[in-house]
Write a structure and sequence with these properties.
3-stranded antiparallel β-sheet, globular, about 300 residues, alpha+beta, single chain
Amino acid sequence: MTDALTKASRLSFWTGPVDPQPLGGGITNVNFVVEDAGRKYVVRVGNDIPVHQVMRFNELAASRAAEAIGLSPALRHYEPGALVIDFVEGRTLTEEDVRNPAILSRIVPLIRRCHQEMPAAVRGPVLMFWVFHVIRDYAATLRDGGSRHTDKLDDLLTTSAELERAVGPVDVVFGHNDLLCGNFIDDGDRIWLIDWDYAGFNSPLFDLGGLASNNGIEGDQERELLRLYFGEDPTPDLCRRYEAMKCASLLRETMWSMVSEIHSEIDFDYSAYTSENLSRLNAALATFRSVQVQGKQK
């Protein structure tokens, strides 16, 4: 934290001395709120994180594109290891907020705009986020690091292969790929989508499944989520592929946390987060396999 604080306070963007204040909630980066010349900014401090396939050139390109199409606050400054973004006066959403039908109906158009408009706005080289590659790489990282979860990896990789087969061919859009509730801010007039660390080309089903799995969207509300996004009732085939990608999203989040247990220096209870996501994963897999069985019976 000390090094990050020093970095945030010494950026060339500032007009004079500043006093960065820690901003809680980040579990990938260290964030600060800074006031300078009568304006407030968020400073995101973080270098490349190869074990998580987070590359700052990619985050920078995605952040600029998201600003250009009006999804994210303005990016005011960049230098290696730090982004300065306009501070949004608003309320960070909770999981309960995301499940609120009125709010969910405002979130889905943001996701669709991200998927449809970002490809034309993004400039320069950017990454593809293919969850099954990430999972395989996480497994190798966990083995190399002597993780306490090594004995689970064979089963997790078998599950991943099962899910990848079920997902099948995909349409490619530009995804946010980290739709936690904390990445939505409601300023009273509109909802902003922030934090583009994991952005990249992907299947739309990953963001939809991730939104559901990260925020406890279940059952009939998931079908409504698919209706809102696609504009029509989802077919049984789409539902099965969606369920598979939702499970893959949870598997990736679980393994992300396992890797963070041994590689992150941020003060956060990753062990508890691993357990929480593993429980969510097991529940989602039970639903997915039940849907698969029902499909075969028909």
